[in-house]
Design a protein that fits this description.
The protein is of the alpha/beta class and about 750 residues long. It is built from 22 helices and 14 strands. α13 runs antiparallel to α18 (about 475-575). It is elongated and about 170 Å long.
Length: about 750
């Protein structure tokens, strides 16, 4: 009796699986039996045995708990460790074997040291290509985001293998290369050996490759079913007992390349590896198998003239169309939500922009600019006039101005037209007589008038050449004197006029800036309106498409119900029980239910991946900028900082990208059904000292075999001292150069001479 626990990871909560199956009326025992059948026949290259098994399983409904066991969740199913690697004529290795110590959880680290070019990467590649052959090359390119033409993968693989053929062996005329790996698995010893064969020119033929599996302590060849392709059967066993090629690059990798992985094809890889880690890839595979089975059996029934074949064929087609329309509806719904969000964001921006100004306020600004320009022109003109009359006077200085004023006053006195009168004695007598006739004649008055008269007559000259400014008339002297007296007042007026001109210029600049801001706002408004118009058009189109797809789905559902009722009616007419599923219809129904169950379980799986990678990243990273890592249901990875911003797109250093990738790899490894070893080339890569210490501390504290392929400058000195008591074994690659060719490397026990790192 198959156990459902054999097909899912220990990380899957059994209660959640049972609940999901109940939600969609999927008997979990039926699921376990289908998965068990696929496990027995997968990879055979011939689906006939699997489809025959489906015939038996689907002939009658399975009820109760008779067909399968549903037990409580067991712990992890065990550890896998690498026991031995042998390489013959592979790259720099002529013939060498590394016998690794058995896994001691307290000393899980194995060090293999080698200088550049001595074979560390060749060793890692040898293990990968031993396990997966051609698919390792294409999967590596996909993993690292490298381009590879699908049509040339076969030739590219042959070229890679030919280039990997040990040059000295080729020169000696040898015609084969081999890599052999021995593993300790929960099912016992498994030896995987892959050989490549070459012609005398060193070229690999189309069929020049063999894969052989040995099992048990005695190393017997694993027998393959007689009616299956042996190579495909063996490859399926590698996938089942060890790892799939997609999962391999999460356990056997070059650490320096992980920073590239973390930025390329990340979402797609995370989606695939999550399904693999939780065992859900088997659910996807059985869905494909059941649908293929239905198509195959419908064609066979049609050929023999089965009365129900046409109905079943139509039902199969309708189900396929329904699945496609359902996917279309999901895609349209996501696109519609995204477009609505874009439209609504533009609407919100438009409202904020429109609140910043109106047409009327812009019109007022334009009028204000015109008014200020006119007033500024007038003020500048007035200022220029004032400056023309005031500045020359100001420039001569106060001392010179005072001197000129004194001289002008003196000229006024010297050029007085009444000066000759005071020198006329007859005029003085007449004045005195007039005073006497008026009754004011006294001795003192006569003396005072005479004294004043004589004083006025003294110092008066009537000669114009005695003046300081003889060219000035009395009127001009008065005009100049008045002008000089007004200078201080005009200077104040000039300063005020200058300040007024400056204030007008500042107001014009502010007005111009406000107009420019308004124009920019208007441009932004027009841009937002354009985005809104386009988005609204897209929303309307998507809504129409979604409505059409929904109507189409309703129509297809009705057609499926009609075809199902037709089959039920035919069953009743033949004495059967109405509603009893025929094998083909039941296969399609089960495929749909298993797909729904898988989709329901996935979010929980991604949640566990998110929690685990966040936890490990916090241990490995020293910056502390990443607060939470979230893996969405489509595999999309987001890195949130403490402010809740997704910073995945920021330009992080290669070391930071490497740490993130290592955290993701470790998280997947911890959640896998089987704890696989990590084999890491150049583990410390481009990391700084703090990251190196954190990474070494993490690797050395896991109870999982960890093989580190190190350069002399990497794990040595204080870094070596950090993990010394966690090292279960150490080896060093020794290389001997040859006069011609690539030379030869061998693995020996020991490690580098310790040097300060």
């Amino acid at each position: 009796m198959p156990d459902i626990n054999d097909f899912v990871s220990s990380s899957i909560d059994l209660a959640e699986l049972v609940a999901a199956c109940e939600n969609y009326h999927l008997p979990i025992e039926k699921l376990a039996m289908l998965l068990d059948a696929r496990r027995r026949f997968e990879g055979s290259g011939n689906r006939r045995p699997l489809f025959n098994a489906f015939d038996t399983l689907l002939a009658d409904e399975v009820g109760g708990q008779d067909g399968a066991r549903v037990t409580e969740r067991l712990p992890a199913k065990g550890l896998v460790s690498l026991r031995q690697v042998s390489l013959r004529n592979w790259k720099v290795f002529g013939n060498t074997t590394i016998n690794l110590p058995g896994l001691d959880p307290s000393r899980p680290v194995i060090l293999i040291g080698g200088k550049n070019g001595y074979g560390k990467t060749s060793l890692l590649e040898g293990i990968l290509f031993c396990l997966f052959g051609k698919s390792a090359l294409s999967e590596r390119s996909h993993f690292l985001g490298e381009s590879s033409a699908v049509g040339t993968r076969g030739s590219a693989y042959r070229q890679f293998i030919q280039n990997s053929f040990h040059q000295p062996a080729k020169n000696r005329g040898e015609t084969s290369a081999a890599v052999r790996t021995e593993w300790e698995t929960p099912e016992g010893i498994l030896v995987v050996e892959r050989r490549w064969y070459f012609n005398e020119a060193g070229a690999m033929e189309e069929d020049g490759e063999t894969l052989t599996l040995y099992v048990g302590e005695d190393g017997n060849i694993l027998p393959a079913p007689h009616d299956v392709d042996t190579t495909e059967f063996y490859q399926a066993e590698v996938d089942r007992r060890l790892m799939t090629v997609g999962a391999a690059f999460f356990f056997l990798f070059d650490a320096e390349q992980t920073s590239t992985f973390s930025e390329r094809n990340l979402d797609e890889q995370v989606l695939a590896i999550t399904e693999s880690a939780f065992g859900l890839w088997r659910f996807r595979a059985i869905v494909d198998d059941l649908r293929s089975y239905s198509r195959d059996r419908a064609r066979r029934q049609d050929k023999v003239g089965d009365d129900h074949s046409k109905i079943v064929s139509d039902l199969l087609s309708a189900r396929n169309v329904r699945r496609g329309v359902a996917e279309e509806i999901e895609s349209l719904g996501m696109a519609l939500e995204t477009t609505r969000e874009k439209r609504d964001a533009s609407l919100a921006r438009l409202m904020s922009l429109q609140n910043g100004g109106t047409y009327e306020s812009m019109h007022e600004l334009l009028e204000q600019r015109q008014s200020l320009a006119l007033e500024h022109t007038r003020a500048v003109h007035a200022f220029a006039g004032l400056a023309a009359t005031t500045l020359p006077v100001a420039l001569v200085g106060k001392k010179l101005r005072d001197t000129v004023m004194t001289m002008l006053n003196a000229d006024d006195l010297g050029d007085d037209a009444t000066g000759g009168v005071f020198q006329n004695d007859a005029a003085l007598r007449r004045l005195l007589d007039a005073i006497e006739q008026l009754g004011g004649d006294t001795q003192s008055t006569r003396e005072d008038v005479s004294t004043a008269w004589n004083a006025l007559s003294k110092g008066v000259s009537t000669q114009s050449d005695a003046l300081q400014f003889p060219h000035l008339t009395a009127v001009l002297r008065k005009s100049v004197t008045d002008r000089l007296r007004r200078h201080e007042d005009e200077r104040v007026v000039l300063a005020e006029a200058g300040e007024y001109v400056s204030s007008l210029a500042a107001a014009m600049r502010d007005t111009e800036a406000a107009i420019d801001e308004g124009n920019r706002r208007d441009d932004a408004i027009r841009g937002a309106q354009g985005v809104i118009a386009v988005a609204q058009s897209e929303v309307e189109q998507l809504e129409r498409s979604l409505s059409n797809a929904t109507e189409k789905l309703t129509s297809i559902e009705a057609e499926i119900d009609r075809l199902t009722a037709t089959l039920d009616g035919a069953d009743a007419a033949e004495g059967g029980i109405p509603g009893q599923r025929r094998p083909l219809d039941q296969a399609l129904n089960l495929a749909d239910k298993i797909e729904l169950v898988t989709n329901e379980l996935l979010p929980g799986c991604f949640e566990k991946i998110s929690e685990k990678v966040t936890e490990i990243y916090g241990v490995l990273a020293h910056k502390g900028t990443i607060a939470r890592i979230v893996v969405a249901s489509d595999g999309h990875v987001s890195l949130f900082d403490h402010a809740g911003q997704d910073v995945r797109s920021l330009d992080r250093s290669a070391g930071e990208r490497q740490i993130f990738a290592m955290a993701l790899i470790a998280a997947v490894g911890q959640l896998s059904a089987v704890q696989l070893p990590s084999i890491v080339d150049t583990p410390l890569g481009r990391l700084d000292s703090d990251h190196r210490e954190r990474l070494l501390r993490y690797f050395s504290t896991r109870a999982v075999q960890t093989i580190l392929l190190s350069q002399p400058e990497e794990i040595n000195g204080r870094y070596l001292e950090m993990i010394r008591n966690k090292i279960g074994g150490s080896f060093i690659l020794d290389h001997r150069s040859q006069a011609a060719g690539i030379g030869n490397s061998v693995a020996k026990s020991g490690y580098f001479d310790e040097a300060a790192a």
